[in-house]
Automatic annotation (TrEMBL), chains A, B:
InterPro entries: 2-isopropylmalate_synth_dimer, AIPM/Hcit_synth_CS, Aldolase_TIM, Citramal_synthase, LeuA/HCS_post-cat, LeuA_allosteric_dom_sf, PYR_CT. One of its GO terms (biological process) is isoleucine biosynthetic process. The keyword Transferase applies. This is Citramalate synthase. GO terms for molecular function: (R)-citramalate synthase activity; 2-isopropylmalate synthase activity. It comes from Hydrogenothermus marinus.
Amino acid sequence: MMEKKVLIYDTTLRDGTQAEGVNVSVEDKLRITEKLDAFGIHYIEGGWPGSNPKDDKYFEEVKNLKLKNSKIAAFGSTRRAYLKVEEDKLIQNLIKAETPVITIFGKAWDLHVIQALKTDLEKNLEMVFDTVSYLKKYTNEVIFIGEHFFDGYKSNSEYAVKVLQSAKDAGADFIVLADTNGGTLPNEIEKIIKEVKEKGIKENLGIHAHNDSDTAVWNSIVAVLNGAVMVHGTINGFGERCGNANLCSIIPNLSLKLGYETVPKENIRKLKEVSNFVADLVNLPVPKNMPYVGDSAFAHKGGVHASAVIKNSKLYEHINPEEVGNKRKVLVSDLAGKSNIIYKAKELNIPLDEKDPRLPELINKIKQLENYGYHYEAAEASLELLMRDFLGLLPKYFDLDAYRVLIARRYSDKMPISEATVRIKMENHYEHTASLGNGPVNALDKALKKALISKYPNLAEVELIDYKVRIVNESSGTAAKIRVLIESKDKDSRWGTVGVSENVIEASWQAVVDSLIYKLVKDNTKPVGES
Amino acid sequence: MMEKKVLIYDTTLRDGTQAEGVNVSVEDKLRITEKLDAFGIHYIEGGWPGSNPKDDKYFEEVKNLKLKNSKIAAFGSTRRAYLKVEEDKLIQNLIKAETPVITIFGKAWDLHVIQALKTDLEKNLEMVFDTVSYLKKYTNEVIFIGEHFFDGYKSNSEYAVKVLQSAKDAGADFIVLADTNGGTLPNEIEKIIKEVKEKGIKENLGIHAHNDSDTAVWNSIVAVLNGAVMVHGTINGFGERCGNANLCSIIPNLSLKLGYETVPKENIRKLKEVSNFVADLVNLPVPKNMPYVGDSAFAHKGGVHASAVIKNSKLYEHINPEEVGNKRKVLVSDLAGKSNIIYKAKELNIPLDEKDPRLPELINKIKQLENYGYHYEAAEASLELLMRDFLGLLPKYFDLDAYRVLIARRYSDKMPISEATVRIKMENHYEHTASLGNGPVNALDKALKKALISKYPNLAEVELIDYKVRIVNESSGTAAKIRVLIESKDKDSRWGTVGVSENVIEASWQAVVDSLIYKLVKDNTKPVGES
């Protein structure tokens, strides 16, 4: 079955960091390297030596990691047109990185050679040949990427193949076909790879796809089905524009559905963990609806459907979510059935037996709240507090007494002012605090934290990161009920809370209060006054 | 070229609303219907009659819309096993919706028939036949969806095809193959469709794909390449779990790259607008990296790259972003901005010439506001006011002087009180009014109307019917900028307005003020003091 193995080449640390908003430290890059190695990725492209001090530091430090599965690759371009390869500092930087693998890209589109490189076609072939053959003396493996290969092939197929042939003649170990602009569709990828093979480039082919046409995953797989043995991509598909091919979809598709060997099968259970880990370090969210690894990838709505999925999950799930380390999520939405609540309690580690006499009343209470407008699917922290409170499992941290917010603007001022006051009771005395804020919710959040922080210093770690407001009963406009969802985080987790009221401030207040109490519960904080 | 036409069937309003966190009003659904109609979508699936009061209201109201391009479809299942078709209330509800198209799904997976429907295979065939043939008497077109068709085919191909054959025999106009669990890959889709055609189901085939394997776009297109003439999907791929097939990728791939006719070619330029419009109304964001329509889909990082892209964009972009109404991000696309604004002005009946010397400044102003967080796709009334104001075409109805809102609650009371005061100037004197409200925005709206109504009695007709709040810069929580969208209506139209501020009350206030001024403009109301 050797022919069924596909080498996974991860470029999260290089191409992936081109995504908007990404800014990783050397430490982040090293931690990601270790994670990908443990996951079983075959190649990790670490950066472009000489392009910035961070990448240089990375290549210095990565040598000290004891990697078990991954080979580190340094990335760079062919030599410049007007320099000899041994004179080109960019090439020397690659050698200095001392990686077991060097990946070189060369232009495979005639238009690019002429207009972007401003050289002639023949010279570009020499640049490819020189660079690859020179580097082969200094490192174990050279991978050649034909940049813009598919566009180049469509423009001048003969020349595009010549570029690959030059790299092959120079001893490149792998020839990777790149769809750099991401515009090629799978039917073209298939046709072109077949033709390339007919033209003599038959072995050790790879694919490097971008997602501009929303087909990067299948572009990569169709290349594999046609003989490619190496797939380039990034974790979560992070990358410039619409991103690179998403390894978090390609790996399970190849391994679980198409019978290929990618990372070790037992590691695929860590897929969601790897996805979250990388997302957290590069500071980009994993979209909830991302296939395989998103939080909602296996979420079920609707009562009949939800109870059926528990009985026979195969009927409603394309794979068992545990195979990729994900889990089934039953959305508690309008359907506070018994099995849903029991399932939820188990998930939240709340002891609740199917025969518990309080169960019908709890279900009834949730049903009432949902009818009123509460939505717990994106606010599990509030659901947990509700259930704990109902079952007598929620400590009393403080008593709320009153709040007040004032928002006022004169048109001679640019912005309104927002001032909040909060009064709470702890240990038999009142804390009465006031705060300004950018807006009313911010002011309330600050005033409440101010009142609590001396007794509960861990609340300083809580940050409100998202805030959503919806009308629940749409027909009556601003007099209707309003649902506020707040997402909070601390250093190691995120949670959602909800509030509902006819008053947007009251609804926000409820969600803010829940967010802070949840933090106390989560940290197992002892209530003041308890010994 | 008639054979190259693909019918686009949008199920955003039904399957799309299954996405986590989506909750649309009847008003939203009607506005989306109008937008999709104007865009040129062939079929709009509006909901499931009888499943909830909202969908019933929708089908009642949608009859009053004057649609130019789209046929409305009502969605439902085959009759229940133990009822005759004419006795089944679910079927009668479909007829009552009085749509030109009814779409019926029936189980095409033997396992589902036995385990979920708990009936036998033969009976299920009868249910399909009865339902389709009965409904054909009451409506122009019946579309049949074979639910779980691909999984069913893999389990029992003979039976799965029999289900389709029953629908065909009963007179179904289209036979749609659904990959309900989203686990099927394009190579299987291709193989199975070919076999289905060999088995006699050759014409009027459709595809309904979900994105659980990250291949829904190509699953849909590969079906078209193999003869399917109808594609089901949703705007932005919104939908349960990992979403439905994304029409915002399928339409440009088919129309711009594969030579098919989908929506009218000139409308594809509105793709991004439609994408944003729907996203704003269903209150889900469009991911920045979404192909074709995401804000970063054509974003270029890096200086050399950016300047090269200006010289010859074909080198770095798979299509011209303007073809889908998107824009290059590095480029201050003066020209694109200009033609857009001129186009908009024409649409809004605002006299504005291409050579108007004020145009660059207007474009600049709109650009600044958009950078700040304003979104005009779902708030054209605010855009119209902005343009009129800038061009000196907006009458001065009143001057704003100040507002103030107080929200306060003691925990001994059930609800907070909200009190607003507003001070405005008209005809050289001040109106200073106060009002309570269910919440702060309601109180402000009432106080402002109170101040204006004696001079502008038509404002009594304005009703705020929806209210949406979204964080613009999501990373900074309650201290971030907040965008409020308000939908208003009077007896004969609806309009959207927008406000942005760090303060939710200030943002709401802006949208409320715009809503009332827009009503005055719309009615050609004469400002007080003018003779």
